[in-house]
Amino acid sequence: MAASIRTGVVGLGMMGRHHVRVLRALDGVDLVGVVDAAGDRYGAADGLPVYRTVGELLDLGIEAAVVAVPTAHHESVALELADHGVHCLVEKPLAADLPGAQRMLERFEAAGVVGAVGHIERYNPALQELRRRLDAGALGDVYQVVTRRQGPFPARIADVGVVKDLATHDIDLTSWLVQSPFARLFAQAAHKSGREHEDLVAFSGTLADGTVTNHLVNWLSPFKERVTVVTGQRGSFVADTLTGDLWFHENGTVATQWDAVSAFRGVSEGAMTRFAFPKREPLVLEHEAFRDAVLGDGSRIVTLREGLETLRVAECALESARSNRITSPLGSLGPGGDREEEAA
User: Fold this and answer.
1) Are 328 and 316 in contact, with CB atoms under 8 Å apart?
2) Do 139 and 271 fall into the same domain?
3) Which among 319, 342, 321 has a CA at the least distance from the CA of 329?
4) Residue 206's domain spans which residues?
5) CB 27: neighbour CB atoms within 10 A?
6) Does position 257 have pLDDT exceeding 90, yes or no?
7) In a 3-state reduction of DSSP, which class is residue 147?
8) Alpha carbon distance 169, 171 (integer Å)
9) pTM given for the model
10) Strands (E), 36-141
């Protein structure tokens, strides 16, 4: 591999420390310094210089950086880096709001530097294997995507709610798996933990290709669940992104003997297969994709434009929950969810 890419990390919180761990061992990357105004409270730097400002990191002549600060600061930190010609991997969500995300996209394009978003679920081995099998036609037509993402409240998250922090995973992975954007959705949210932002959301949607989606996300469950179910013409795939496992439940061909059931057309239970495939750490795969993008192959990153569109869907979900109406990331909807005609 060519000379190592001089790299820094901004933010040494829960995610930043893991970025440091992975980058230390990544071929083709030279981690030269880290930044956190609060210091190295987790001991992640382990001998690396720890700076208080991005400017001090820039003085080291870095070529790439990871932005792992709180969401409210993504824009200011990433733009300072981009303006100095530094390629950036920005943790998700891309920005606190759509205008900020749009400004980031425009400035990165103007600067001619790589911008990637840390939607790490795309790199989960179960979902990568599922995407390969969907692309190969193993399921036939896709009918529905269902996700469940539940767990206890994370004390570290204070500047966004569960929609932008967690549901953005499901928004991104759903569109990526099916290769179709969200066309419309309806959401309901709740505030149960006394925090400023929502901590529970349930929303259903339709993708542009007609696929139906359902998503359950919360910070209120005393257990952790990360499940994606894709149902289609030949059965259902079930991916568990906590364990990296993938199953296929095949439609059965055994004749139904129960008269009341056989009176209508449906499917019966067939074979269940659990697949064996390599399971590498998603964060390592994400950093390999970003490294390769810096070197000229950007085919595997989550782009800033994709991150912006994911944030747009998240904003639509929040608006739907506030207004109790169907919303559309692709355009405005009239009363009752009918699409309003574009002005001439």
Assistant:
1) yes
2) yes
3) 319
4) 125-279+311-323
5) 8
6) no
7) strand
8) 6
9) 0.91
10) 50-51, 64-67, 87-91, 115-118
